[in-house]
Write a structure and sequence with these properties.
With 249 residues, the protein is an all-alpha fold. It has 13 helices and no strands. The protein has helices at residues 4-18, 31-51, 56-68, 72-85, 94-102, 106-119, 124-138, 140-145, 158-165, 171-178, 187-203, 207-220, 229-248.
């Protein structure tokens, strides 16, 4: 392990890096306290791991925290260490697939989501991530030809979302679907709708619309890292695209 002083310096640098957007006019009010909370928990779990370095539960949580803070190589290292300690963690580990994706390791990401499909063959959200990773490697045509199949029903609104990725629905059609009054009180359906339509638009390089939709997704649900895992993932996507667009201006 690194000496305590070096670890404190590393945590300080990480905190500064992930709060770089704080001065922006469109930085939401909740971001700074959220990052502070995540960084504080990271320090606590890191201390626990210095005492019990092979504790799978601690590695799992630290991997999540690293992911939420945008430290993808560190997240991957902890997740892979979990699997080395307990191989039964491999197939269910969709979070590792997401970490690979954000780190640009798209082939590994795709393989991880294929593994998860063998573990849970009903989850179209996993199929979307497999599609997104494969599209980065093989292109849109192949990704559509090799989409995972789901004969059973699914939670809202993943059936129309999956049809959109298959090229059978338009983004406008899916947005109209989730705008129906039956989803007026279903914040999770709204969140997933905005998020995955946003990622679809980003894949098609419709960056302005994608940025709007990702921000809408982030605004739908509360900033609560304890209960909303995918909210944090959507936040990371929004922050990354926002940063890229600022550089393009």
């Amino acid at each position: 392990m690194a000496p305590p002083l070096l670890r404190r310096i590393a945590f300080s640098l990480l905190f500064c890096a992930v709060t770089a957007l704080a001065a922006a006019d469109d930085d939401p009010f909740w971001r700074a306290p959220l990052i502070e909370k995540l960084t504080g928990e990271l320090k606590e779990i890191d201390h626990k791991l210095t005492e019990k370095p092979d504790t799978v539960a601690y590695l799992s949580r630290r991997g999540d925290l690293y992911l939420f803070l945008g430290a993808y190589p560190e997240s991957i290292k902890d997740f892979e260490r979990m699997i080395a300690l307990d191989p039964n963690q491999d197939a269910p580990h969709w979070r590792l697939g997401i970490a690979y994706y954000f780190n640009g390791q798209f082939e590994k990401s795709e393989r991880q989501f294929v593994k998860y499909h063998g573990y849970d063959p009903k989850d179209r959200e996993n199929g979307i991530w497999k599609f997104l990773a494969q599209e980065k490697v093989d292109g849109l045509k192949v990704a559509r030809e090799e989409m995972l199949t789901y004969p059973e029903t699914d939670r809202e609104p993943f059936i129309p979302l999956y049809e959109m990725y298959a090229g059978k629905r338009s983004p406008e059609d899916v947005l109209a679907y989730i705008a129906d009054k039956k989803f007026a009180d279903d914040k999770h359906a709204q969140f997933f709708g905005y998020y995955y339509v946003g990622l679809y638009e980003l894949m098609l390089d419709h960056r302005e619309h994608a940025l709007q939709l990702l921000r809408k997704a982030v605004d739908v649900l509360p900033a609560d890292p304890e209960t909303v895992y995918m909210w944090n993932v959507a936040r990371l996507h929004w922050e990354r695209l926002l940063k890229e667009e600022k550089k393009r201006q």
